[in-house]
Structure formats: structure tokens, C-alpha cells
Description:
This protein is an alpha/beta fold and 224 residues long. It has helices at residues 12-18, 20-27, 36-48, 117-133, 157-176, 194-197, 204-223, and strands spanning 8-9, 54-57, 60-70, 75-93, 96-108, 139-144, 149-154. Strand 3 (60-70) and strand 4 (75-93) form a beta hairpin.
Amino acid sequence: xxxxxxxxxxxxxxxxxxxxxxxxxxxxxxxxxxxxQTTAGELMHRNAHDExxxxxxxxxxxxxxxxxxxxxxxLSGQCDVVEFHKSSEGISxxxxxxxxxxxxxEYKRGKAKEGREDEVQLCAQAMCLEEMFMTQIDExxxxxxxxxxxxxxxxxxxxxxxxxxxxxxxxDYFGRGYTPKVKSSPKCRSCSLSDLCVPKLNKKRNVSKYxxxxxxxxxxxxxG
Length: 224
């Protein structure tokens, strides 16, 4: 169980799964740089996080910008959208009659990614909601702005275990103030921190080898 002052940002999970170094640069070193992707994503979330928006459509209630936290994971943040569907298998919600089933919905710019960063973030939201409402949440949805469609995500044991593993690593790195090194990859091209990160320049061993090799060549020329 984590104390509230030690909570980390839940939204950082997406950064962490995408690239541990990117997460550390943002959340430990407090570095940030916008590009088109981050700006477009910010505009989409600004509407989804409007806390003044609460709708009721028939047997569905829609809450936006709901603040969540988990002492077990040591995370806190906001959900884009949380839907409450009337269901006999649901839970009671203060101020509303009947029982309700909780379904988190996360909004993303673009389309579904090859990596797991989006589903990990959504699963962490569900795990926070489960603690807060003392219920079980089996699935949620990712809505992508480019395709205008929802993708269903099932919160199985493997995904939940991965969320726990990532949060443990995040707390460890944050506690030590450690920024891990990474190998450059194609995804670096879409990273807004590529100029600040410059992973190729962090290979000190390669630089040392280059200098030693260069000095060895000069010595060989003088001896020759």
C-alpha cells in the first residue's frame, strides 16, 4: 500500500510501456517537448476531461474526467470517460437508483498501436476503479480518433500482472531517481523527446572504444 504523497501519474504508464527512458525524462527529469502527435492528443483529451460534463442516456450514465487513485498500485489520475450501465450484476451508486456496471473508455488520437501501452493504461484505470467502487471490471474500450471506432479490451490476469510489474518498476526508478538507457529503434522517430534523449550519444562505451582506437592508430603511425 502506497501513501498518497508517493502516488505516480497513471498516465505515465503509457509513456513507460512505450519507452522507459521517455517516461523517466518526463516524470523524473521533468523534460518535455511537444510535436504534432502530442498536441493533437492534448486537444482530444481536453474535451474528454471536461469535468463539467455528465450525461444520462436511458440506462447509461456517462462521467467525464473522473478522478481515480489506487493505494495498491500507487497511482492516481483521471479517466477520459467512465460509463455506468444499468445492470442487475452491477453495484449501487450513491444518488442513483438501481445497480450499475462500470466500463472505462479511453480516448486516443490516431489508430490502434502495435504496442500494449494503451491497453495497459486502460487496465490500470479499471484496477483503480475496482478499488474505489469495490467491484470487478472485466472490460473497457479504447476509442481512436482516426478510425472513430471503439476497440474492446479484456482485463485478463496476464494484463493485470503486467500492469503491476510496470508500476513496481516505475516506483523503483522514481525512488532512485534513475533514468534508464535504451537502444534506438524505429519508434524513436515518433517520440517528441528524440532531440532531448539522443540515445545514440549515451553509448559511452562506444565513444571510449572510438577514442582508444584512434589513439592506437596514431601510435602505430608514429612507430611506423
